[in-house]
Every structure is written in C-alpha cells, then in structure tokens.
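Lab notebook page, bench 4
Experiment: in silico fold of construct C2
Operator: M.H.
Input chain length: 141 residues
Purpose: comparison with the prior construct
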Amino acid sequence: MARKQNPVQSVADVIAETGPPKARPFGVNHFHLVGRMTAPGELRYTATGKPVLNFGLSTTAAGVTTFLDLVAWQGAAETLAQYGGKGRELYVEGRIATRMREIDGHRVKQVDLVVEGFQLLGRRLVAAGEAAEEPAVEGAA
C-alpha cells in the first residue's frame, strides 16, 4: 500500500519512516531534457567502427535559453543522424560523464551529456523540395 504524502513533512522525516531510498537503475546521475537540435550533428565512427554523433540541443526554461552539447552512440547516433536536424524537437534522457582532454597543451575536464534514450517529438523541419514523410521513431542507446 502506498504511503500518504504529507506536504509539510521534511525529507529527513520521510527517510526516518521509510528507510533510505532504494537503489534505482540510473541513480542520481540521470538527466531528462526536451529541446530542439541546433544542427544536424556530425556522425563519425570510432577506430573500432562504433558510430558516434555529437550534436547540440537548446532548451528554454523561464525565458532563458541554454545550449548544451550531447553525444549519442551506436543505434541512437545513427537514428538521430538520419531523422534529426536543425530545429527538430527531442525528448532526451541519459547520464552525465566526465573525461580529461588536452586543449592547447592544457588538460581540461570535459562534461558530456551521454544519450541513453530519446524520442523524436513533432515533425522534422522540411527544406524546400524535401519529402515530409517519416516514421515515428523512438530509440535507446
């Protein structure tokens, strides 16, 4: 039976009553975004042949637009490269990863938003002379 929620109860009180939160498959390193692709992205292949797509996503909340860089791998990369494009609205979920890079002789920490699942929303913006037909696509990495 579900526990009734008390809006004035603190998080500490809830944990004291119910115990610590159960482990979730994504833990706390998980993001959910809805936004528009800023460009088609660049589909590349690693030395081992894995497809990877780097693309930008713009999100707007409370009148403030934020531009983010995301990376998709394997099937998600190929699907987004085929059906995505500038202005395409997406729901994206994934995890945050960090790595060290060297830029101009300096080691720099880079934060990557790694796509683990996505849903294409709305219709792709169609250029003049391009067919508007496309299937509904949902993907996971």
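Observations: The two ends are 35 Å apart (CA to CA). Residues 23-140 form a domain with the OB fold (Dihydrolipoamide Acetyltransferase, E2P) fold (CATH 2.40.50.140).
Next step: discuss at group meeting.
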